[in-house]
Amino acid sequence: MLTVLPGRDVTGDAWIGETFAAVSRVPVGSRGPVVWPFTPYYSGNPFQAVLYGGFADRSMVAAPAFRVGDLLRGTDGWPADLPLVVHLHWLNQVLAGASSAAAAGAAVDEHSRLLDTLTARGAKLVWTVHNALPHDTAFEAQEVRLREEVLARADLVHVMSPLTAELVSPWFTLPADRTYRCDHPGYQGVYPDWVSALEARSRLRIPEGSVALLVTGALKPYKGLLDLLDAVDVVNAAAPQGIVLVVAGASDGAPETERFLARAYLHPAVRVLPGKVAESDFQVLLRGTDVVALPYRRSLNSGVLALALTFGKPVLLPSGSGSAPVVAADPGAAFLYDAEAGPEALVAALRSLLGADLAAAQVAAAAAGRRIDRATVAGRFADDLRGWADTGHLPRDHAEALPVDEPPS
Protein backbone atom coordinates (compact mmCIF):
# COMPACT_ATOMS: atom_id res chain seq x y z
CA MET A 1 0.00 0.00 0.00
CA LEU A 2 1.57 3.35 1.01
CA THR A 3 5.34 3.42 1.26
CA VAL A 4 5.71 6.42 3.58
CA LEU A 5 4.09 7.64 6.76
CA PRO A 6 2.06 10.85 6.61
CA GLY A 7 4.28 13.89 6.99
CA ARG A 8 7.38 12.17 5.64
CA ASP A 9 9.33 13.72 2.79
CA VAL A 10 8.32 12.02 -0.46
CA THR A 11 10.46 14.07 -2.83
CA GLY A 12 13.91 13.55 -4.32
CA ASP A 13 16.24 11.08 -2.65
CA ALA A 14 13.65 10.16 -0.01
CA TRP A 15 11.17 9.12 -2.71
CA ILE A 16 13.78 6.99 -4.49
CA GLY A 17 14.85 5.30 -1.25
CA GLU A 18 11.33 4.57 0.00
CA THR A 19 10.16 3.31 -3.38
CA PHE A 20 13.01 0.92 -4.04
CA ALA A 21 12.91 -0.30 -0.44
CA ALA A 22 9.29 -1.24 -1.08
CA VAL A 23 10.25 -2.95 -4.34
CA SER A 24 12.83 -5.01 -2.46
CA ARG A 25 10.12 -6.24 -0.08
CA VAL A 26 8.07 -7.82 -2.86
CA PRO A 27 8.26 -11.58 -2.09
CA VAL A 28 10.54 -13.67 -4.24
CA GLY A 29 8.52 -15.93 -6.52
CA SER A 30 5.56 -13.57 -6.78
CA ARG A 31 4.71 -11.60 -9.89
CA GLY A 32 7.31 -9.01 -10.75
CA PRO A 33 6.68 -5.64 -9.11
CA VAL A 34 4.95 -2.71 -10.78
CA VAL A 35 5.83 0.72 -9.36
CA TRP A 36 2.78 2.94 -9.21
CA PRO A 37 3.58 6.58 -8.28
CA PHE A 38 0.45 8.61 -7.57
CA THR A 39 0.07 12.36 -7.29
CA PRO A 40 -0.95 14.59 -5.66
CA TYR A 41 -0.67 12.74 -2.36
CA TYR A 42 -3.03 14.04 0.35
CA SER A 43 -2.10 12.42 3.64
CA GLY A 44 -5.19 13.80 5.40
CA ASN A 45 -7.60 12.11 2.97
CA PRO A 46 -7.97 8.33 3.37
CA PHE A 47 -9.28 7.85 -0.19
CA GLN A 48 -5.91 6.94 -1.70
CA ALA A 49 -4.96 4.55 1.09
CA VAL A 50 -8.32 2.81 0.63
CA LEU A 51 -8.16 2.76 -3.18
CA TYR A 52 -4.70 1.17 -3.19
CA GLY A 53 -5.53 -1.23 -0.37
CA GLY A 54 -5.23 -4.29 -2.62
CA PHE A 55 -2.02 -3.31 -4.38
CA ALA A 56 0.56 -4.93 -2.09
CA ASP A 57 -1.01 -8.38 -2.51
CA ARG A 58 -0.58 -8.01 -6.28
CA SER A 59 3.10 -6.91 -6.08
CA MET A 60 2.16 -3.32 -6.90
CA VAL A 61 4.08 -0.57 -5.12
CA ALA A 62 1.90 2.52 -4.54
CA ALA A 63 4.44 5.35 -4.20
CA PRO A 64 3.06 8.77 -3.19
CA ALA A 65 4.38 12.06 -4.57
CA PHE A 66 3.11 15.54 -3.81
CA ARG A 67 3.61 16.88 -7.36
CA VAL A 68 4.33 15.52 -10.83
CA GLY A 69 7.60 17.43 -10.81
CA ASP A 70 8.77 15.49 -7.76
CA LEU A 71 8.88 12.34 -9.89
CA LEU A 72 11.41 13.67 -12.39
CA ARG A 73 14.51 13.08 -10.29
CA GLY A 74 13.30 9.72 -9.04
CA THR A 75 12.57 8.36 -12.52
CA ASP A 76 15.71 9.57 -14.30
CA GLY A 77 17.45 6.45 -15.62
CA TRP A 78 14.48 4.25 -14.67
CA PRO A 79 15.19 0.51 -15.15
CA ALA A 80 13.68 -0.69 -18.42
CA ASP A 81 12.56 -3.98 -16.85
CA LEU A 82 10.62 -2.36 -13.97
CA PRO A 83 7.10 -1.31 -15.07
CA LEU A 84 6.24 2.26 -14.08
CA VAL A 85 2.68 3.65 -14.01
CA VAL A 86 2.12 7.29 -12.98
CA HIS A 87 -1.39 7.83 -11.60
CA LEU A 88 -2.78 11.37 -11.65
CA HIS A 89 -5.60 12.31 -9.32
CA TRP A 90 -6.91 15.84 -8.69
CA LEU A 91 -5.54 18.40 -11.17
CA ASN A 92 -6.50 21.56 -9.26
CA GLN A 93 -2.94 21.87 -7.91
CA VAL A 94 -1.52 22.54 -11.39
CA LEU A 95 -3.06 26.00 -11.76
CA ALA A 96 -3.37 26.78 -8.05
CA GLY A 97 -0.62 29.41 -8.07
CA ALA A 98 -1.62 31.12 -11.32
CA SER A 99 -2.52 34.81 -11.00
CA SER A 100 -3.41 35.42 -14.64
CA ALA A 101 -4.67 33.58 -17.70
CA ALA A 102 -1.19 33.74 -19.20
CA ALA A 103 0.35 32.21 -16.08
CA ALA A 104 -2.32 29.51 -16.07
CA GLY A 105 -1.57 28.70 -19.70
CA ALA A 106 2.14 28.47 -18.94
CA ALA A 107 1.38 26.10 -16.05
CA VAL A 108 -0.58 23.83 -18.40
CA ASP A 109 2.36 23.81 -20.83
CA GLU A 110 4.83 22.95 -18.06
CA HIS A 111 2.62 20.15 -16.72
CA SER A 112 2.32 18.69 -20.22
CA ARG A 113 6.09 18.86 -20.62
CA LEU A 114 6.57 16.98 -17.36
CA LEU A 115 4.17 14.26 -18.48
CA ASP A 116 5.99 13.97 -21.80
CA THR A 117 9.28 13.53 -19.93
CA LEU A 118 7.80 10.75 -17.80
CA THR A 119 6.32 8.91 -20.77
CA ALA A 120 9.63 9.23 -22.63
CA ARG A 121 11.15 7.36 -19.65
CA GLY A 122 8.72 4.51 -20.19
CA ALA A 123 5.94 5.49 -17.80
CA LYS A 124 2.30 4.74 -18.54
CA LEU A 125 -0.21 7.35 -17.42
CA VAL A 126 -3.51 6.83 -15.60
CA TRP A 127 -5.90 9.63 -14.67
CA THR A 128 -8.78 9.34 -12.18
CA VAL A 129 -11.52 11.85 -13.01
CA HIS A 130 -12.62 13.14 -9.60
CA ASN A 131 -14.57 16.14 -10.87
CA ALA A 132 -15.29 17.94 -14.12
CA LEU A 133 -13.43 21.11 -13.14
CA PRO A 134 -12.23 22.43 -9.77
CA HIS A 135 -15.16 23.87 -7.85
CA ASP A 136 -13.39 27.23 -7.46
CA THR A 137 -12.14 27.50 -11.04
CA ALA A 138 -10.57 30.88 -11.83
CA PHE A 139 -9.34 30.17 -15.37
CA GLU A 140 -11.86 27.84 -16.97
CA ALA A 141 -10.37 27.78 -20.48
CA GLN A 142 -6.98 26.79 -19.12
CA GLU A 143 -8.47 24.17 -16.77
CA VAL A 144 -10.27 22.64 -19.75
CA ARG A 145 -7.09 22.62 -21.84
CA LEU A 146 -5.21 21.00 -18.94
CA ARG A 147 -7.66 18.10 -18.98
CA GLU A 148 -7.50 17.82 -22.74
CA GLU A 149 -3.70 17.63 -22.56
CA VAL A 150 -3.88 14.93 -19.88
CA LEU A 151 -6.44 12.95 -21.89
CA ALA A 152 -4.26 13.15 -24.99
CA ARG A 153 -1.46 11.43 -23.04
CA ALA A 154 -3.34 9.11 -20.69
CA ASP A 155 -3.14 5.38 -21.37
CA LEU A 156 -6.11 4.74 -19.07
CA VAL A 157 -8.86 6.99 -17.67
CA HIS A 158 -10.48 5.79 -14.45
CA VAL A 159 -14.00 7.02 -13.68
CA MET A 160 -16.14 6.19 -10.67
CA SER A 161 -19.59 7.20 -11.91
CA PRO A 162 -21.23 5.82 -15.06
CA LEU A 163 -22.47 9.38 -15.67
CA THR A 164 -18.94 10.79 -15.89
CA ALA A 165 -18.72 11.05 -19.69
CA GLU A 166 -22.10 12.83 -19.80
CA LEU A 167 -21.40 15.21 -16.93
CA VAL A 168 -17.97 16.31 -18.17
CA SER A 169 -19.05 16.61 -21.82
CA PRO A 170 -19.69 20.38 -21.67
CA TRP A 171 -15.94 20.80 -21.12
CA PHE A 172 -14.09 17.79 -22.54
CA THR A 173 -14.65 14.37 -24.08
CA LEU A 174 -13.50 11.10 -22.53
CA PRO A 175 -11.95 8.50 -24.86
CA ALA A 176 -14.34 5.55 -24.73
CA ASP A 177 -11.64 3.08 -25.77
CA ARG A 178 -9.42 4.03 -22.83
CA THR A 179 -12.03 4.63 -20.11
CA TYR A 180 -12.51 2.19 -17.23
CA ARG A 181 -15.02 2.39 -14.40
CA CYS A 182 -14.65 1.12 -10.86
CA ASP A 183 -16.63 2.50 -7.94
CA HIS A 184 -15.55 4.96 -5.30
CA PRO A 185 -14.75 2.61 -2.39
CA GLY A 186 -16.44 2.78 0.98
CA TYR A 187 -14.60 3.51 4.23
CA GLN A 188 -15.34 0.36 6.22
CA GLY A 189 -12.95 0.14 9.17
CA VAL A 190 -11.30 3.50 8.52
CA TYR A 191 -13.05 5.50 11.25
CA PRO A 192 -13.91 4.57 14.86
CA ASP A 193 -17.48 3.34 15.33
CA TRP A 194 -18.41 2.60 18.92
CA VAL A 195 -20.68 5.50 19.94
CA SER A 196 -24.37 4.59 20.20
CA ALA A 197 -27.04 6.55 18.35
CA LEU A 198 -28.58 7.57 21.67
CA GLU A 199 -25.32 8.98 23.02
CA ALA A 200 -24.49 10.68 19.72
CA ARG A 201 -27.88 12.42 19.53
CA SER A 202 -27.46 13.57 23.10
CA ARG A 203 -24.04 15.06 22.30
CA LEU A 204 -25.48 16.87 19.28
CA ARG A 205 -28.52 18.07 21.24
CA ILE A 206 -31.03 16.60 18.81
CA PRO A 207 -34.60 16.97 20.16
CA GLU A 208 -36.68 13.82 20.35
CA GLY A 209 -38.81 13.47 17.23
CA SER A 210 -36.67 15.75 15.06
CA VAL A 211 -35.11 14.51 11.83
CA ALA A 212 -31.39 15.26 12.05
CA LEU A 213 -29.76 16.22 8.75
CA LEU A 214 -25.96 16.22 8.43
CA VAL A 215 -23.73 18.39 6.24
CA THR A 216 -20.05 17.57 6.55
CA GLY A 217 -16.79 17.95 4.68
CA ALA A 218 -15.28 21.21 3.45
CA LEU A 219 -17.89 23.98 3.45
CA LYS A 220 -17.96 25.56 -0.02
CA PRO A 221 -20.52 27.52 -2.07
CA TYR A 222 -21.03 24.75 -4.65
CA LYS A 223 -22.49 22.55 -1.89
CA GLY A 224 -25.69 24.63 -1.87
CA LEU A 225 -25.59 25.41 1.85
CA LEU A 226 -27.70 28.56 1.71
CA ASP A 227 -30.26 26.78 -0.48
CA LEU A 228 -30.48 24.00 2.09
CA LEU A 229 -30.88 26.38 5.03
CA ASP A 230 -33.64 28.28 3.20
CA ALA A 231 -35.46 24.98 2.61
CA VAL A 232 -35.09 23.96 6.27
CA ASP A 233 -36.68 27.26 7.29
CA VAL A 234 -39.65 26.69 5.00
CA VAL A 235 -40.25 23.17 6.34
CA ASN A 236 -39.79 24.13 9.98
CA ALA A 237 -42.19 27.05 9.64
CA ALA A 238 -44.98 24.50 9.29
CA ALA A 239 -43.42 21.83 11.52
CA PRO A 240 -41.35 23.53 14.26
CA GLN A 241 -38.16 21.60 15.06
CA GLY A 242 -39.13 19.08 12.40
CA ILE A 243 -35.61 19.22 11.01
CA VAL A 244 -32.36 19.91 12.82
CA LEU A 245 -29.35 20.65 10.63
CA VAL A 246 -25.90 19.57 11.86
CA VAL A 247 -23.03 21.31 10.06
CA ALA A 248 -19.49 20.06 10.61
CA GLY A 249 -16.51 21.15 8.56
CA ALA A 250 -14.05 23.89 7.75
CA SER A 251 -15.12 26.95 5.78
CA ASP A 252 -13.29 27.86 2.59
CA GLY A 253 -13.72 31.53 3.51
CA ALA A 254 -15.81 32.36 0.44
CA PRO A 255 -18.37 35.15 1.00
CA GLU A 256 -21.32 32.81 0.38
CA THR A 257 -19.98 30.27 2.84
CA GLU A 258 -19.46 32.96 5.46
CA ARG A 259 -23.02 34.26 4.94
CA PHE A 260 -24.29 30.75 5.51
CA LEU A 261 -22.27 30.36 8.71
CA ALA A 262 -23.37 33.78 10.00
CA ARG A 263 -26.98 32.60 9.78
CA ALA A 264 -26.22 29.09 11.00
CA TYR A 265 -24.48 30.20 14.20
CA LEU A 266 -27.60 32.10 15.28
CA HIS A 267 -30.15 29.59 14.02
CA PRO A 268 -32.07 27.56 16.64
CA ALA A 269 -32.37 24.54 14.32
CA VAL A 270 -28.69 24.39 13.36
CA ARG A 271 -25.75 22.87 15.23
CA VAL A 272 -22.38 24.08 13.93
CA LEU A 273 -19.10 22.30 14.61
CA PRO A 274 -16.55 24.50 12.84
CA GLY A 275 -13.19 23.30 11.55
CA LYS A 276 -11.86 20.04 10.20
CA VAL A 277 -13.65 17.06 11.75
CA ALA A 278 -11.49 14.79 13.89
CA GLU A 279 -11.51 11.14 12.82
CA SER A 280 -13.00 10.08 16.15
CA ASP A 281 -15.90 12.53 15.72
CA PHE A 282 -17.29 11.19 12.44
CA GLN A 283 -19.01 8.40 14.36
CA VAL A 284 -20.84 10.97 16.51
CA LEU A 285 -22.01 12.88 13.44
CA LEU A 286 -23.12 9.81 11.52
CA ARG A 287 -24.64 7.84 14.39
CA GLY A 288 -26.41 10.90 15.75
CA THR A 289 -28.07 12.03 12.52
CA ASP A 290 -30.70 10.44 10.29
CA VAL A 291 -29.82 11.59 6.76
CA VAL A 292 -26.70 13.01 5.13
CA ALA A 293 -27.43 16.02 2.90
CA LEU A 294 -25.59 16.45 -0.42
CA PRO A 295 -27.54 19.28 -2.09
CA TYR A 296 -24.59 20.07 -4.34
CA ARG A 297 -25.08 22.33 -7.34
CA ARG A 298 -22.49 20.32 -9.26
CA SER A 299 -21.15 16.93 -8.22
CA LEU A 300 -19.48 14.05 -10.01
CA ASN A 301 -18.20 11.86 -7.15
CA SER A 302 -18.62 12.21 -3.42
CA GLY A 303 -16.48 10.83 -0.63
CA VAL A 304 -19.12 12.06 1.83
CA LEU A 305 -21.70 9.85 0.13
CA ALA A 306 -19.39 6.84 0.39
CA LEU A 307 -18.86 7.65 4.07
CA ALA A 308 -22.61 7.98 4.68
CA LEU A 309 -23.33 4.59 3.11
CA THR A 310 -20.47 3.03 5.07
CA PHE A 311 -22.31 4.02 8.24
CA GLY A 312 -25.68 2.94 6.79
CA LYS A 313 -27.06 6.46 6.49
CA PRO A 314 -29.42 7.45 3.66
CA VAL A 315 -28.59 10.52 1.63
CA LEU A 316 -30.44 13.52 0.22
CA LEU A 317 -29.15 14.52 -3.21
CA PRO A 318 -30.16 15.80 -6.66
CA SER A 319 -31.30 13.12 -9.08
CA GLY A 320 -28.80 14.40 -11.66
CA SER A 321 -25.78 13.96 -9.40
CA GLY A 322 -22.97 11.72 -10.57
CA SER A 323 -23.39 9.89 -7.26
CA ALA A 324 -27.03 8.97 -7.89
CA PRO A 325 -26.16 5.64 -9.61
CA VAL A 326 -24.39 4.49 -6.44
CA VAL A 327 -27.76 4.17 -4.72
CA ALA A 328 -29.85 3.24 -7.79
CA ALA A 329 -29.99 -0.46 -6.86
CA ASP A 330 -31.28 0.41 -3.38
CA PRO A 331 -33.82 3.22 -3.98
CA GLY A 332 -34.70 3.62 -0.33
CA ALA A 333 -31.11 4.63 0.39
CA ALA A 334 -31.60 8.07 -1.15
CA PHE A 335 -34.13 10.88 -1.10
CA LEU A 336 -33.77 12.30 -4.60
CA TYR A 337 -35.09 15.58 -5.97
CA ASP A 338 -34.90 17.40 -9.29
CA ALA A 339 -32.61 20.36 -8.69
CA GLU A 340 -33.59 21.80 -12.09
CA ALA A 341 -37.18 22.17 -10.87
CA GLY A 342 -36.26 25.01 -8.51
CA PRO A 343 -36.11 25.54 -4.73
CA GLU A 344 -39.51 23.95 -4.10
CA ALA A 345 -38.14 20.55 -5.12
CA LEU A 346 -35.62 20.64 -2.27
CA VAL A 347 -38.34 21.81 0.13
CA ALA A 348 -40.55 18.91 -0.94
CA ALA A 349 -37.69 16.46 -0.44
CA LEU A 350 -37.14 17.77 3.10
CA ARG A 351 -40.84 17.54 3.87
CA SER A 352 -40.79 13.91 2.76
CA LEU A 353 -38.24 13.16 5.46
CA LEU A 354 -40.73 14.02 8.20
CA GLY A 355 -42.99 11.10 7.36
CA ALA A 356 -40.40 8.70 5.98
CA ASP A 357 -39.57 5.29 7.38
CA LEU A 358 -36.01 6.20 8.30
CA ALA A 359 -35.27 2.79 9.79
CA ALA A 360 -36.04 1.17 6.42
CA ALA A 361 -33.98 3.85 4.67
CA GLN A 362 -31.01 2.96 6.86
CA VAL A 363 -31.35 -0.73 5.94
CA ALA A 364 -31.29 0.24 2.26
CA ALA A 365 -28.32 2.54 2.82
CA ALA A 366 -26.40 -0.22 4.58
CA ALA A 367 -27.06 -2.50 1.59
CA ALA A 368 -25.75 0.19 -0.77
CA GLY A 369 -22.71 0.53 1.48
CA ARG A 370 -21.97 -3.18 1.16
CA ARG A 371 -21.99 -2.81 -2.63
CA ILE A 372 -19.04 -0.43 -2.38
CA ASP A 373 -17.31 -2.35 0.40
CA ARG A 374 -13.78 -1.10 0.84
CA ALA A 375 -12.01 -4.45 0.48
CA THR A 376 -14.18 -5.58 -2.43
CA VAL A 377 -13.70 -2.44 -4.51
CA ALA A 378 -9.98 -2.19 -3.71
CA GLY A 379 -9.55 -5.83 -4.71
CA ARG A 380 -11.34 -5.28 -8.03
CA PHE A 381 -9.31 -2.19 -8.72
CA ALA A 382 -6.00 -3.91 -7.98
CA ASP A 383 -6.88 -7.03 -9.99
CA ASP A 384 -8.02 -5.05 -12.99
CA LEU A 385 -5.13 -2.63 -13.06
CA ARG A 386 -2.53 -5.30 -12.44
CA GLY A 387 -3.97 -7.16 -15.42
CA TRP A 388 -3.90 -4.00 -17.52
CA ALA A 389 -0.30 -3.24 -16.50
CA ASP A 390 0.71 -6.78 -17.47
CA THR A 391 -1.21 -7.13 -20.74
CA GLY A 392 -2.36 -3.70 -21.87
CA HIS A 393 -5.93 -5.01 -22.10
CA LEU A 394 -8.58 -2.61 -20.84
CA PRO A 395 -10.08 -3.83 -17.54
CA ARG A 396 -13.76 -4.67 -17.45
CA ASP A 397 -16.23 -1.96 -16.50
CA HIS A 398 -17.99 -2.67 -13.21
CA ALA A 399 -21.07 -0.59 -14.03
CA GLU A 400 -23.05 -3.77 -14.58
CA ALA A 401 -21.04 -5.97 -12.25
CA LEU A 402 -22.22 -4.81 -8.84
CA PRO A 403 -23.03 -7.77 -6.60
CA VAL A 404 -26.62 -8.65 -5.81
CA ASP A 405 -26.89 -7.85 -2.13
CA GLU A 406 -28.77 -9.77 0.49
CA PRO A 407 -29.44 -8.51 4.02
CA PRO A 408 -27.34 -10.21 6.69
CA SER A 409 -29.13 -13.09 8.38
TrEMBL record:
EC number: 2.4.-.-
Matching InterPro entries: Glyco_trans_1
Domain Glycosyl transferase family span(s) in chain numbering: 200-357
Pfam families named in the record: Glycos_transf_1
A GO molecular-function descriptor: glycosyltransferase activity
Record keywords: Glycosyltransferase, Transferase
Top-rank taxon, per record: Bacteria
PANTHER family per record: D-INOSITOL 3-PHOSPHATE GLYCOSYLTRANSFERASE, GLYCOSYLTRANSFERASE
Protein name (database record): Glycosyltransferase
Species for this entry: Spongisporangium articulatum
Lineage: Bacteria, Bacillati, Actinomycetota, Actinomycetes, Kineosporiales
